[in-house]
Amino acid sequence: MGKRYDYQAIKQWVKRIYDAYGFSENDSAIIARSITATDLYGIESHGVQRLAMYDRKINAGDIKVDAVPEVICETPVSAVLDGHKGMGQLVAGKAMRLAIEKAEQSGVGIVSVRHSNHYGMAGYYAKMASDKGMVGISATNSNPFLIPTYATQPFLGSNPLAFSMPAQPHSFLFDAATTVVSLGKIEVYAKRGKTVPGAWAVDESNEISKDAKKLRKNLSAAPKIGGMLPVGGKGEKNGGYKGFGNALIVEILTSILSQGHLSADLGSGTVKGISHFFTAIDLHLFGDPGEISESLSVMLERIRNLPAETGEKIYIHGDKEAAAFEDRLKNGILIDSETVKEMAEISEQLHIPYQMYL
């Protein structure tokens, strides 16, 4: 399963890695904070587990260390940002900060992004807005993983959508892929030698497979072998067309609005660059923000207190993340041995001493 490691030590280790790549002190700190905060929230698929992928992309030139994101189209309430293949966490952070600034001035800010990279946890950016007392929305496309209903090859990405809004005792935070799970979760299962517990993806024969290592290998190939199922699964009986439709909406908000690359065209050849979408909405547009937030808090508490199945507890989106955050901040973040090995190998290549962080 892995071991617990001190959050501050791991964050410092990650920062030193990005310092060594050539990022500025400030940018390295932003990247390290975003990546390790994801582990604090218990989203292990998108935290330090992703360092090996980022390392490959930096070395291949797919992530440009010296990239400067550029606003190429702008109004008082909107903007299109070209990431110029920069580190996704940096491009996304700038885009959401711009959306928040516009919302502070005009009530709403909408920023679409093209030519970026994997940005980690979608909810991290939505929560940037809710931390400012606003509604936050974040979405991204990705390499092609999702097989549309009745198709036999992937076309859309895992295309997650996140939504956050201020509430008590913590913000409401929904963050989910439009595939049954993200690729990162399959990678975590493969690293831990675990079998996939559900109908998450299909193999080269379009048959559901539960072999995590095989699925990781197939989905890392170019072109992809097999693919991932939309929320609702194969066909229409359990609503798979709904997950497919939600993935299409994310694709429209990201690649179409920004005029970036479609998920279908990424992941092989020379076409590179992921697209994102961010929105910040000032609650003052609808009345008193405190009253609106209180109404949300009361509703969520009513749901938590509904009669539950025997032995079960009702959770609201964000509850588990908030609990994980408190636990891991105090007791350390959980990292599997394969990921620690990957981090050590990256450090050795960059001539960074790392034993003091373990």
Automatic annotation (TrEMBL):
Residue runs in coiled coils: none
Keyword Thylakoid in record: no
Keyword Phosphoprotein recorded: no
Keyword set, alphabetical order: Oxidoreductase
InterPro entries for this protein: Mal/L-sulf/L-lact_DH-like_ah, Mal/L-sulf/L-lact_DH-like_NADP, Mal/L-sulfo/L-lacto_DH-like_sf, Malate/L-lactate_DH-like
Family (UniProt): Belongs to the LDH2/MDH2 oxidoreductase family.
Protein name in UniProt: Ldh family oxidoreductase
Taxonomic lineage of the native organism: Bacteria, Bacillati, Bacillota, Bacilli, Bacillales
